[in-house]
Design brief:
- The protein has helices spanning 5-26, 36-49, 70-86, 88-106, 131-138, 145-154, 226-265, 277-299, 309-334, 345-357, 365-372, and strands spanning 119-121, 162-166, 172-179, 182-189, 193-197, 208-214, 221-222, 267-268, 271-272.
- The protein is α+β, with helices and mostly antiparallel strands and 377 residues long.
- The strands form three sheets. Strands 1-3-4-7 form a four-stranded mixed beta sheet, with helices on both faces.
- Strand 3 (172-179) and strand 4 form a beta hairpin.
- The protein is globular and about 70 Å long.
């Protein structure tokens, strides 16, 4: 899909209006997470606007429907950033739903169009990014026997439980599975899985967490050929990382607004705290992190096949560390009140930390990069 710059701007303006007027308004009480009914209603409105579509046989302008042009990628990134600013949990749910739709379309899998929140996706295995091995496999590097064993164990859905974060209402899960020396994809129904709810997670309170293990052997397995397997998985991993970074950047935008507004009215020692050097330093750190994320995301607004997976991993690892630190600075600007649930900043910190852990997290990016650049060839 080709989008002119003006088209992209118009679509993003509409997405921004919806994010502000509906998503932010509905989730304006950080101490009170929205229920399943509200999330369902917002999702239906997002679908009516064209941001979401559970069907794979229709083409529109929704999130992750198109990734082959700079304008389309700019829209994906911009929409998720604006949704992340409104509410990171809602944005994360829609990001994974849209990503599941994209993967299903590549594999000619049919999703249940009756439920917007019915399908979710996880892009990695039961831990991390399988160190250097998955990077070397993506680059078609000859793997040692222990590396193949590592990948098989990493994506062994029957032996190991995988933690997913998703809407309560999810019914089908799309995840990668190691099969015949490559990555296949399984579309598994909840009834065929061993699903155990987890205790409340650190952040993303609008959603729930589950430990999931496959109990259906290879039911619903779709195995593309070797080249297609690498192509689809590589694209998915890049899209997931980019989306998580965009949502996190949007969440910091909201945090910066809270910090700036509070510093402009709060007094200490008879002086507005925005005039104190220590607070100015904090506000400056927040702006630096936001600028870094903006530049990083702008560099990724290109066709997905033109983006290097190593660059995405490196960019996310560096940018997300700054975003998490900046979110903590938002709390510090508020002082003690920043730790109160109803104030808002502490939720941004928790959401940032949760986003950092998804898609293999950022700590494992270092080993992934070592494999990507051939350090272990």
């Amino acid at each position: 899909m080709f989008l002119e710059r003006e088209d992209t701007q118009l679509l993003l303006a509409e997405a921004g209006r919806f994010a502000r007027e509906r998503v932010a308004a509905a989730t304006s009480r950080p101490e009170t997470p929205i229920g399943a009914a509200v999330l369902e209603q917002l999702s239906e409105e997002a679908a009516a606007l064209g941001l979401l579509s559970p069907a794979t046989d229709e083409s529109g302008f929704g999130i992750w429907e198109h990734v082959d042009h700079a304008g389309a990628m700019a829209f994906n990134i911009g929409a998720l950033t604006q949704l992340g600013r409104a509410n990171a949990g809602v944005a994360f749910a829609w990001h994974r739903i849209a990503l599941a739709r994209w993967v299903a379309a590549q594999l000619a899998l049919e999703l249940d169009a009756a439920s917007l929140l019915g399908t979710t996706l996880v892009s990695t295995g039961h831990y991390g990014l399988a160190r250097t091995s998955v990077a070397r496999w993506l680059k078609s590097t000859a793997l040692h026997g222990d590396e193949v064993a590592l990948l098989a164990d990493w994506l062994d859905r029957r032996t190991h439980a995988t933690v997913i974060v998703a809407p309560h209402a999810w019914q089908t899960l799309l995840w990668p599975v190691w099969s015949d020396g490559r990555i296949a994809w399984q579309l598994a129904h909840r009834d065929s899985l061993d699903v155990q709810p987890c205790r409340a997670q650190h952040g993303l309170n609008e959603l729930a967490a589950f430990q999931v293990r496959d109990s259906s052997s290879t039911a619903g397995l779709k195995s593309p050929d070797d080249a297609a397997s690498r192509l689809i998985y590589g694209r998915t991993l890049k899209m997931d990382m980019i989306g998580l970074l965009a949502i996190a950047a949007g969440a910091l935008v909201r945090g910066q607004e809270l910090a700036t507004d509070y510093a402009a009215v709060r007094t200490q020692g008879g002086k507005i705290i925005a005039g104190h050097p220590a607070v100015q330093r904090m506000l400056g750190d927040i702006e630096i992190a936001r600028h870094h994320a903006d530049v990083a995301l702008a560099s990724l607004a290109r066709p997905i096949d033109d983006i290097d997976a190593g660059a995405v991993a490196a960019t996310r690892a560096s940018a997300h560390a700054l975003l998490c630190d900046a979110a903590n600075q938002v709390v510090q600007v508020h002082g003690g009140i920043g730790y109160m649930c109803e104030a808002g900043p502490e939720k941004i910190v928790r959401d940032q930390n949760m986003l950092k852990l998804q898609a293999g997290g950022t700590r494992e990016a270092h080993a992934f990069l070592a494999g990507w650049i051939g350090a272990f060839a």
